[in-house]
Amino acid sequence: MSLLARHFEVAGLPTLILGSALDILESGRPPRAQFLNFPLGFEAGPFQDKQTQLEVVRQGLAGFESFTEPGIKSLEFSWSQGWKRINQREASATRSDTRSPRNMEPQYQTEEDRRLATPK
Q1: 13-24 residue pLDDT tens
Q2: Closest CA to 39 of 21, 12, 61, 57
Q3: Which of 4, 84, 99, 106 could be cross-linked to 27 through a Cys-Cys bond (beta carbons 3.0 to 4.6 Å apart)?
Q4: Is residue 59 part of a domain?
């Protein structure tokens, strides 16, 4: 998403990413991003909680006016029950999950992507 956002920005189209994986946002260095400390897949808030979801989107979009330079800002929302559910699901997961464990090392599809994402 960050590479795509930078591409659109070069073309003159402002972008803003709403994300819930701070390490991924930091690695990608998007032009503008709002971080939400919610479990992955719930970037707009709890399932069927329209009030919270609308407020998240409103505050997220306000970033277009509040950002004066590239960066990542945190939105002040919390959802402890969401993290509790994720932890319970992971604790009871079976060994049928064949995904590689997540690590903090940035992954790039090409060397050009790595070059573009690396701070100068």
Answers
A1: 999 999 988 988
A2: 21
A3: 106
A4: yes
- Scan for tokens 């939105």, then name that residue: 75
Q: Is residue 103 part of a domain?
A: no
List, in sequence order, every residue forming a beta bridge with 73; answer none if it has no partner.
Answer: 34
Half-sphere CA count of 103, side-chain side, radius 13 A: 4
∠ Cα 102 104 109 (to 5°): 80
Q: What angle do CA 69, 105, 40 make, to 5 degrees?
A: 70
Burial of 15 (0-12, 13-18, 19+ CB in 10 A): middle
- Total number of residues shown for the chain: 120
